[in-house]
C-alpha cells in the first residue's frame, strides 16, 4: 500500500499582509498531479488545513476542490484531521457531502468516520478515534487524534500546582489515549496513526504559532503510539523524522511560510507499507513557488543596487543594512519603489552592540543532574537514564568540583 503524507497547508495565509493564495493554488494542482503520478492508495493531511478559524471563501473553495480531485470519485481514500489552526466544527461541517466519496474528515479527538463502500476502498469499521479500511486486498487500521487541546482532553491540566505536573498530565493522558486505541491494531494488518501535536525535540520555525503554555502542551516521545508502523504528524513546518523508535514523521508545510523557513526544502512523504514490515519512507520535494530571500548589505548603496538588479524578480525580500546612522526615509522609499514585495528593511547600526549575554548555569546553585536527565531523554526518545548512568554522571560532576 502506498500512502502520501502531507500537512500544514495553511490555506488563506498571508506573509506580512501579502496573500499566498496563488502559490497555494499552484501547490494544490501539483499535489494532485503528484498523487496521481505516484499512484497513491491513500492521502493523509495531518491538520492545519487553514490558517485561521474563519478562512476566506477562496481558501475553503480551494480545499474542497482539491480533496474532491484527490478522491477521484471515491477511488482513493483521503484522510484528514484538524490542526490547532482549524475550526473543527467548520471543518467537519461538509462531512455529509464529502463522506459519500469516502473522504474522511475528523475535527475532534475521538471523532469517527462513517462505514461505507466506495469505488476503490471500503471503510469496514469506524468508531471514536479509530478507522479500519480495506484498500484492494490489504486492511489498514488508522488511529486518528486531531489536535488535542486541554479542553478536548477533558481539562487534563487543570488543578495542578506547577508546570511539571501540568506537562506530565497532558502528555500522559494523550499517551493513554494512544495506548487504548492501539488495542484495535492487528498483527496481520497494516497499523498507522495520525495526529497533530508538538513532540519534545521538534525543530520549529517562526511561522508556527505556539500551542503550548509553559510547556504544558508538549508531548514526550515515549507517549507516542508504540505499535504504529508509521505515525503521520502535523504542526511542525520543517519535515523531519522526530522518532526512529516510534516511526514518527512530520511532513512539514509544503510552502515556505516565514523568513526562518527560507533555507528549508519543502516536501511530502511517500510511505510504502505492508503488514508486519517496516515502512519504506521517502521524500518528494515540492517547488519553491516564491522565494523568500534575506539580503545582508554592508551599506545602503549596496541595498539600493540589489533592488535595481532584482526589480523584475517575483520574490519576498528582507533587508538587513549595516549603517552608522538610521536609514533616511528617502532611502527606504527609493528601495520600496524600485523593488516590489520588500517585507522588511532592518538597519544594523554599527554603534549598537547586538550581542546578548548568553545564559549560563551555575552548577553550585542549580541541580545540574536535572539538566542532564532532560538532555538524556531528548536524545533517547524520552527514555529515562538508568540509575547507573545517573550515578556515573554525578560522580563525574563531583570529581570536577573537587579538582576546582
Helix content: 25-40%
Strand order of the largest sheet: 7-8-9-10-11-14-16-15
Oligomer: single chain
Give the percentage of residues in beta strands. 25-35%
**What would you say the CATH architecture of the largest domain is?**
4-Layer Sandwich
State the gist of this model.
With 404 residues, the protein is α/β, with parallel strands linked by helices. It has 9 helices and 21 strands. Strands 7-8-9-10-11-14-16-15 form an 8-stranded mixed beta sheet, with no helix packed on it. It has a 6-stranded mixed beta sheet with strand order 6-5-4-1-17-18.
Describe this structure in words.
This protein is of the alpha/beta class and 404 residues long. The chain folds into three domains: 2-285, Metallo-dependent phosphatases (Purple Acid Phosphatase, chain A, domain 2); 292-349, no CATH class; 368-403. 27% of the residues lie in helices and 25% in strands. It contains nine helices and 21 strands. Strands 7-8-9-10-11-14-16-15 form an eight-stranded mixed β-sheet, with no helix packed on it. Strand 7 (116-117) and strand 8 (121-127) form a beta hairpin. The N and C termini lie far apart (61 Å). Residues 155-161, 211-216, 356-365 and 400-404 have low confidence and may be disordered.
Amino acid at each position: 500500500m502506498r500512502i502520501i503524507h502531507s500537512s500544514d497547508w495553511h490555506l488563506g495565509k498571508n506573509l506580512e499582509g501579502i496573500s499566498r493564495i496563488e502559490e497555494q493554488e499552484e501547490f494544490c494542482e501539483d499535489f494532485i498531479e503528484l498523487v496521481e503520478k505516484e499512484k497513491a492508495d491513500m492521502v493523509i493531511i495531518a491538520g492545519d488545513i487553514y490558517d485561521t478559524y474563519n478562512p476566506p471563501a477562496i481558501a475553503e473553495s480551494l480545499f474542497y476542490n482539491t480533496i474532491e480531485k484527490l478522491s477521484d470519485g471515491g477511488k482513493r481514500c483521503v484522510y484528514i484531521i484538524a490542526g490547532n489552526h482549524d475550526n473543527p466544527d467548520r471543518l467537519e461541517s461538509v462531512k455529509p457531502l464529502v463522506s459519500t466519496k469516502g473522504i474522511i474528515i475528523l475535527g475532534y479527538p475521538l471523532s469517527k468516520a462513517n462505514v461505507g463502500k466506495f469505488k476503490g476502498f471500503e471503510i469496514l469499521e469506524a468508531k471514536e478515534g479509530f478507522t479500519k479500511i480495506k484498500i484492494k486486498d490489504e486492511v489498514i487500521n488508522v488511529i486518528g487524534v486531531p489536535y488535542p487541546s486541554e479542553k478536548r482532553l477533558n481539562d487534563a491540566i487543570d488543578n495542578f500546582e506547577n508546570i511539571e505536573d501540568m506537562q506530565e498530565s497532558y502528555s500522559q493522558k494523550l499517551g493513554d489515549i494512544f495506548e487504548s486505541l492501539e488495542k484495535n491494531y492487528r498483527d496481520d494488518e497494516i497499523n498507522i496513526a495520525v495526529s497533530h501535536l508538538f513532540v519534545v525535540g521538534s525543530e520549529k520555525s517562526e511561522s508556527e504559532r505556539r500551542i503550548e503554555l509553559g510547556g504544558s502542551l508538549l508531548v514526550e516521545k515515549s507517549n507516542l503510539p508504540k505499535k504504529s508502523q508509521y505515525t503521520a504528524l502535523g504542526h511542525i513546518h520543517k519535515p523531519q523524522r522526530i522518532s526512529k523508535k516510534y516511526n514518527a514523521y512530520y511532513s512539514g508545510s509544503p510552502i515556505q511560510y516565514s523568513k526562518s523557513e527560507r533555507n528549508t526544502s519543502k516536501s511530502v512523504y511517500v510511505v510504502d507499507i505492508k503488514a508486519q514490515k517496516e515502512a519504506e519512507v521517502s521524500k518528494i520535494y515540492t517547488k519553491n513557488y516564491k522565494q523568500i530571500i534575506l539580503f545582508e548589505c554592508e551599506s545602503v548603496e549596496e541595498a539600493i543596487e540589489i533592488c535595481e538588479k532584482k526589480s523584475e524578480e517575483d520574490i519576498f525580500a528582507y533587508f538587513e543594512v549595516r549603517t552608522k546612522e538610521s536609514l533616511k526615509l528617502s532611502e527606504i522609499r527609493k528601495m520600496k519603489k524600485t523593488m516590489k514585495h520588500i517585507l522588511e528593511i532592518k538597519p544594523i547600526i554599527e554603534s549598537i552592540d547586538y550581542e546578548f549575554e548568553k545564559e549560563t548555569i551555575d552548577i553550585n546553585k542549580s541541580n545540574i543532574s536535572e539538566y542532564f536527565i532532560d538532555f538524556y531523554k531528548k536524545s533517547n526518545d524520552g527514555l529515562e537514564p538508568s540509575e547507573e548512568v545517573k550515578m556515573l554522571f554525578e560522580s563525574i560532576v563531583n570529581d570536577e568540583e573537587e579538582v576546582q
